[in-house]
Design brief:
Layout (H helix, E strand, L loop, with lengths): L5 H4 L10 H15 L9 H22 L1 H11 L13 H20 L2 H25 L6 H29 L1
Helix pairs in contact: 2-3, 3-4, 4-7, 5-6, 5-7, 6-7
Length: about 170
């Protein structure tokens, strides 16, 4: 990571727990200063640099505002890159995934909007539990494997909640 740390960009200490409102406010503030429109009359090089700074600021913001991406980033900062498609050696969670997928299919088949809302609330609770568990162990070398397992679970739940939002939109139409 040759570029400055995403956290440093926002004057934050590297930590999983981030004040998202503070992050968003700082992002808006920084985005105004590097916005390419401000460099419309500048040299071509300055315009290109402004574009690059704007792009890296946006990338840093997108990473830090997403719990799974922030978790992966923290592990990477500590020299732990997760394999992209790691097989989940987590039989309990595999069973849970199958259960959630079946439940989501049933909700889709029955077009049950209130059932989808209840499912979404349970999913959010599961995500919050995972976030707390990760926050408690990510920077403890003795719990690194646990942190990696939790990140994989977070990634799955993030993807599932995206699918739930899509289903909700389809049922709302």
């Amino acid at each position: 990571m040759g570029s400055p740390c995403h956290f440093a960009l926002f004057d934050l200490q590297p930590d999983f727990r981030v004040d998202l409102e503070q992050l968003a406010a700082r992002y808006r503030e920084l985005a105004r200063t590097v916005h390419p429109d401000r460099f419309a009359d500048a040299s071509e090089r300055e315009q290109r640099l402004a574009l690059e700074r704007s792009a890296s600021l946006n990338e840093a913001y997108q990473t830090l505002k997403s719990a799974p991406r922030r978790a992966l980033y923290l592990l990477a900062l500590n020299g732990r890159e997760l394999p992209l498609e790691a097989t989940v050696q987590d039989p309990d969670f595999l069973m849970q995934q199958m259960h959630w997928r079946e439940e989501l299919e049933d909700l889709q088949d029955s077009a049950d909007l209130s059932g989808v809302a209840a499912f979404k609330r349970r999913l959010k609770g599961a995500q919050e539990e995972l976030n707390e568990a990760f926050a408690a162990c990510w920077n403890d070398a003795a719990h690194r494997e646990e942190a990696e397992r939790l990140v994989r679970r977070m990634q799955f739940l993030d993807k599932l909640s995206y699918e739930v939002r899509q289903l909700e939109e389809r049922l709302d139409d």
